[in-house]
Amino acid sequence: MFKKVLIANRGEIALRIHRACKEMGIQTVAVHSTADSDAMHVRVADEAVCIGPNASADSYLNVANIIAACEVTGADAVHPGYGFLSENANFAEICGEHGIKFIGPLPEHIRMMGDKITAKETVKKLGIPVVPGSEGGVDTDEDAVRIGAEIGYPVIVKATAGGGGRGMQIVRNESDIVTAVNTCKTEAKAAFGNEEVYIEKFLEKPRHIEFQIIGDQFKNCIHLGERDCSLQRRHQKVLEEAPSPVIDMETRMRVGGIVADAMANFGYEGAGTIEFLYEDGEFFFIEMNTRIQVEHPVTEMITGIDLVREQIRVAAGKKLHYSQDMVEFHGHAMECRVNAEDPFTFMPSPGQVTQYHAPGGLNVRADSAVYSGYKIPPYYDSMVAKLIVKGYTRDGCMMRLLRSLEEYVIDGIKTTIPLHIELLHNKDFQSGDYDIHWLEKFLDAHN
Ligand code: ADP
């Protein structure tokens, strides 16, 4: 097993990884920017190294300084968390060249899935259904018009290197396709350094349903069921639940089995998520994330499996601790992403947290690196906490989530807690009858 893991991240996920390491008897190294010298992950880690100034590009994305921090501290592995360098194949490769184990899949698998066009082609060959769309990228204006007509409007133009809900344009009429493709290319070039775009059918009322998988170095791969992440704003997830209110056990095991077998054949190592849009009983692959995800705790709550621990174990060359028939699902879990933002306009609200008190009680988990007196820096993601609860039933879960949200004290800044409370009072949300566009309509009606 590893002796020392360097955590190449910040915030709640850095703390989450630290916790898994300590429970396995592994020493931890925190890295941080100057702005984060007072951060909780820095306080709790066994060692801490400053890797650069405030801007992420100079610190959390600074490969040379992170590798140097590994060498100085003698860390034998790096956990990248999510965001930052977690899906950077070059970083994974450089770690390998320095004899440091990157806790994640092989660089070539990260690269393949990081390009959405290649990812779609790859999973299609492995027998996974994909959203109908262009075969590969769209080069010329003529191609755009022809492909748009073939697929049928509405369509969505997407950047192959896109992420974080950015680099997407919905097109409802042929007259707009050429402009949309060109705008998307320019934006993709600026944001991701790759202007390639593709077109796919725009689904009008799907749910976002994703399967958690984990594989080891011996071609074993299992699935841990699905998460429903249909509550989104600007293609970004706001609240997630597991299991999905619309997926039955037969479907879960059938589709989960297909993705786990496909990834076993592929030789996938580590944790991964296969994302689908689900409409009229059919699944359509959109992308794969080759890292731990923000919403992984809802799966942990209903399976009892520590995903970060498993990631570390398989990276160290151990066999998966679980076979598929050992994975059992109990109860229902939901996660609220708590952002330092106005709950309805989403204006960022960084600043000092004057009072912090997390809710507790049976089956309540608050993953956060915030503490009383902590100053939220304005340079990074606005998510400051995740509140995850489990109930025996979906209704029980909602009751517990509501009382936990009402107990949560984060004073001094605005947070999205009031939005979550309103959602939990909403009849459509309570019934489980919502699609990926529902939250935006709810917010329009509210504002
Ligand atoms: P990102 O990598 O930026 O998260 P994804 O490809 O995962 O991008 O898509 C994010 C979200 O965008 C989806 O959950 C869904 O809400 C919306 N979306 C993506 N593709 C389509 C599509 N073909 N039809 C309708 N909505 C889509």
Give the biggest sheet.
8 strands, antiparallel
Tally the beta strands. 20
Structural class: alpha+beta
Q: Give the uncertain stretches in residue-range form.
A: none
Largest sheet, spatial ordering of strands:
13-12-9-10-11-14-19-17
Small-molecule components bound: adenosine-5'-diphosphate
Based on CA atoms alone, the radius of gyration comes out at 21 Å
Residues in helices, as a percent range: 25-40%
Per DSSP, the total helix count is 15
Strand % is 25-35%
Shape: globular
N- and C-termini, Cα separation = 52 Å
The average pLDDT value, as a whole number, equals 97
Fold and architecture overview:
Strand 2, helix 2 and strand 3 form a beta-alpha-beta unit. The protein is globular and about 60 Å long. The chain has 447 residues and is an alpha+beta fold. Helix 7 packs across helix 8. The longest helix is centred in the middle third of the chain and has 18 residues. It contains 15 helices and 20 strands. The N and C termini lie far apart (52 Å). The chain has an eight-stranded antiparallel sheet, sandwiched between helices. The structure holds adenosine-5'-diphosphate (ADP). The site of adenosine-5'-diphosphate has 19 residues, from strand 8, strand 12 and strand 13.
